[in-house]
């Protein structure tokens, strides 16, 4: 006996209603397993966190964004650090993510399956810490809460971590990271390559420079531009000087008066510029992603290179996938562990 047409119509309507409210399961990114990297024979044995003051452990922090292609960049960056380290087993990665619930587990599994021997911990960064402080900037990617997580490292990481290297997701290391770790920060909170030839005034609006209450913050300082994608931080001094609250202050000022256009960078310049421990430029060959509008190809800066950084709009994974790479993108490609999905054949 055929079903009642009215019943069939009702069932079909119900099915359509249910499917419209059930989003398709996201395709989780897959990565190839990286080789196991072992310490050289002269490396000390890392005992952190059993010994919270172990001097042989190198602490590195990065963000992991499971919802964007930046995760692919982060994986490549980790791979590059391990491959060029003399003592790779002495590195400990502190990963920050906004991922919740089961995706947190998925992300943890992704890192474990890609780097089975990696020492790491995954920290949840709550966007509510910064949602009310973020102002729109020149590029949408700069407005994401995770872009501001670096401001909260001293709060999120254990108090026993008193020094950290912060790295962006769009870079690769081609030297031993221990060399960067060992730089002498002297009395400074922050160490980074400085670029004093850059026009510092371009990083702030006319409203900032015309108001002495704002521009006076730089009085008696000789500020130079530095890129916040590669920093060595003394977290003990950061906590003592309450640097997080100082950065939040300038974000609140920005929210009300619009004194800059570039996301999380300007607050760092206002708090630290002119009081930074200069690091060799080789540790941040930045700008390889072009500017923030067009992302055109760029060449390396003159001099030796230890770190390649695709800051700017153009990312190597996107340009490679689009078959329109820049010449230097070929240097990033060997560290790409991403598994491309197989095309379905109808044969």
Automatic annotation (TrEMBL):
<keyword id="KW-0735">Signal-anchor</keyword>
<comment type="similarity">
    <text>Belongs to the glycosyltransferase 8 family.</text>
</comment>
<comment type="pathway">
    <text>Glycan metabolism; pectin biosynthesis.</text>
</comment>
<keyword id="KW-0328">Glycosyltransferase</keyword>
<dbReference type="GO" id="GO:0016757">
    <property type="term" value="F:glycosyltransferase activity"/>
</dbReference>
<feature type="signal peptide">
    <location>
        <begin position="1"/>
        <end position="26"/>
    </location>
</feature>
<keyword id="KW-0732">Signal</keyword>
<protein>
    <recommendedName>
        <fullName>Hexosyltransferase</fullName>
        <ecNumber>2.4.1.-</ecNumber>
    </recommendedName>
</protein>
<keyword id="KW-1133">Transmembrane helix</keyword>
<dbReference type="InterPro" id="IPR002495">
    <property type="entry name" value="Glyco_trans_8"/>
</dbReference>
<keyword id="KW-0472">Membrane</keyword>
<dbReference type="GO" id="GO:0012505">
    <property type="term" value="C:endomembrane system"/>
</dbReference>
<dbReference type="InterPro" id="IPR050748">
    <property type="entry name" value="Glycosyltrans_8_dom-fam"/>
</dbReference>
<keyword id="KW-0812">Transmembrane</keyword>
<dbReference type="InterPro" id="IPR029044">
    <property type="entry name" value="Nucleotide-diphossugar_trans"/>
</dbReference>
<keyword id="KW-0325">Glycoprotein</keyword>
<keyword id="KW-0808">Transferase</keyword>
<dbReference type="Pfam" id="PF01501">
    <property type="entry name" value="Glyco_transf_8"/>
</dbReference>
